[in-house]
Amino acid sequence: MFKDKVALVTGGSRGIGFEIARTLASHGAQIAIIYAGSDEAAENACKLISLEGRCKAYKCDVSDFENSGKTVEAVISDFGRVDILVNNAGITRDKLIMQMSEQDFDDCINVNLKGAFNFIKHLSRRFLKQRSGRIINISSVVGLMGNAGQINYASSKAGIIGLTKSAAKELAPRGITCNAVAPGYIETYMTAALSEEIRAGFVEAIPLKRAGSPADVAAAVLFLASDAAGYITGQVLKVDGGMYI
Ligand code: NDP
Questions:
Q1: Domain range summary for the chain, segments of one domain joined by +
Q2: 6-237 is classed in which CATH architecture?
Q3: Which of 60, 142, 190, 199 for mutating ligand 1's site (highest number of atoms within 8 Å of CB)?
């Protein structure tokens, strides 16, 4: 499906991002993954993805505008092009408003929202020139419905939706699509810290009565990156088992 295509996946070293990268690779894409700090996880992820196709890992804090630009240039120099950008890197800093620091708020906005802007910005010239490109931003249902204790995270994920729709309108005339995927409750490292009781509460609230898996999210990204989704742009695809209908 993606022969000769190159996909750049931020936060591709574990969790949902890893599954997205591996799935795209299993359909023929060459993969560049971006990670923040865990060299070992990134190395292991790349080894596993390499079983499907070429993969290289790049260490870069996506919230750093300048380094994001340098990383995009490094990827283009190594792979020759980028066709698919998946802005998946994300963090949580959950606290109630009364306990939340300015830093907690800024960190979420800078990584989750500005990080996506940085990579779109640095790749947009390329995409415009090649008159093609697929951008898929990972939002969250929390960005649509809000969540107590996540004012920072929910704001960043709601921001991703505005960013997606604006980029979609701006880039569409050159054949570039930009969509968002909004996962619900997905079992990953990010959610592993939750207590059994909180998890059970989440699952109870999901009509399909199960937590989602990274593979559920990867399947949606695969579709949006494929030719089959060529006439879809500016959309938010929820992958949440019906959690927010
Ligand atoms: P994980 O915590 O499992 O993985 C996060 C990934 O992002 C890692 O590869 C990490 O790299 C990378 N990363 C974190 N901060 C930065 C940064 N500043 N610069 C570059 N890379 C960074 O997260 P999930 O797989 O659970 O989540 C992936 C995405 O899906 C996120 O955007 C999240 O908000 C979203 N999401 C997740 C849901 C869930 O239930 N899990 C639900 C809805 C949305 P490193 O290991 O090096 O730090």
A1: 6-237
A2: 3-Layer(aba) Sandwich (3.40)
A3: 190
Question: 3-state SS of 28-61?
Answer: CCEEEEEECCCHHHHHHHHHHHHCCCCEEEEECC
Q: Among the atoms of ligand 1, which is closest to the Cα of residue 138?
A: 32
- Per residue in 184-202, pLDDT tens? 999 988 788 788 888 888 8
- CB of 111 sitting under 6 A from ligand 1: yes
Return the beta strands (E) in the chain as ranges. Answer: 6-10, 30-35, 55-59, 84-87, 133-138, 176-183, 236-239
Catalytic site includes residue 153 = yes
Among 153, 185, 231, 244, the one annotated catalytic: 153
17 lines ligand 1 (CB under 6 A): yes
pLDDT tens column, 5-26 = 999 999 999 999 999 999 999 9
Task: List the residue whose alpha carbon is closest to atom 6 of ligand 1.
Answer: 11
Atom of ligand 1 nearest to the CA of 61: 19
Token pair recorded at residue 24? 């795209």
Each residue's pLDDT expressed in tens, for the chain with a length of 245 residues: 999 999 999 999 999 999 999 999 999 999 999 999 999 999 999 999 999 999 999 999 999 999 999 999 999 999 999 999 999 999 999 999 999 999 999 999 999 999 999 999 999 999 999 999 999 999 999 999 999 999 999 999 999 999 999 999 999 999 999 999 999 999 988 788 788 888 888 899 999 999 999 999 999 999 999 999 999 999 999 999 999 99
Q: Is 11 in the pocket of ligand 1 (CB under 6 A)?
A: yes
Between CA 100 and CA 221, with CA 63 as vertex, the angle to 5 degrees is 100
